[in-house]
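Reminder: ligand-aware prediction takes two inputs, not one.
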Amino acid sequence: MIVAGNWKMFAGPDPRMLAERLAGVDGVDAIVCPPYTELAACVEAGLTTYAQNVHWEPEGAYTGEISAPMLLALGVRGALVGHSERRQYFGETDAAVARRARAALAAGLGVIACVGETQEERDSGDMETVLRVQLAVIREECGIDDGLVLAYEPVWAIGTGQVATPELAQEAHAFIKSLLDRPVLYGGSVKPGNAAELLAQPDVDGALVGGASLEIDSFLSICEAAARSRS
Ligand code: 13P
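Here is what comes back for the chain with 1,3-dihydroxyacetonephosphate:
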């Protein structure tokens, strides 16, 4: 069970206090994905720390980007790639996402690669096609790499409070695994009140939490639900 907290562009909780509280939770791999400015403090606090993105080149003229060797030198253990906000607002393509993932894995970082359909794509019956394409490109670049974890984040469920039902999440996760057999986290409005039933699904291998990861109590409560779900 993996529970990753994506702090997005928020300062997030105090890393030391979070680390202290997480030390009391067994049976779950908790990961934090803070903004770049908080990476070092999270590493120093002993948190398993992932960046929110990573470039495919080790260095170069790529303003605003950060590379896998730079993250590794800081003690960062992995990176998200392909978050829907990157795809939606910053023009990340499937090909760029897969390139980022491949370079990060090759450098020795863990990767959480995000996939998911928009409301429009779901309504028009294109959900499976969208997932198929997103995953095919990742699979082609990365293969079935041990360091690769996937996250199913239906775009319509992110930050909306409109969580996928456990049945719908299970169905999507099983479909994703049929295309690329790696652990799949669910993301999109995961809260302490709905985490247990989502995490009880056999193909839901953890959660990628946005808003609820910004408060120590709610993040802890989701980590505890994850630990209980497989005990
Ligand atoms: P919320 O949990 O705020 O819906 O965000 C989900 C997400 O995008 C995590 O990466």
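Strands lie at 2-6, 29-33, 48-51, 78-81, 110-115, 148-152, 184-187, 206-209. The pocket of 1,3-dihydroxyacetonephosphate is lined by residues 6, 83, 153, 158-159, 187-190, 208-212 (CB under 6 Å). We will return to this case in the review session.
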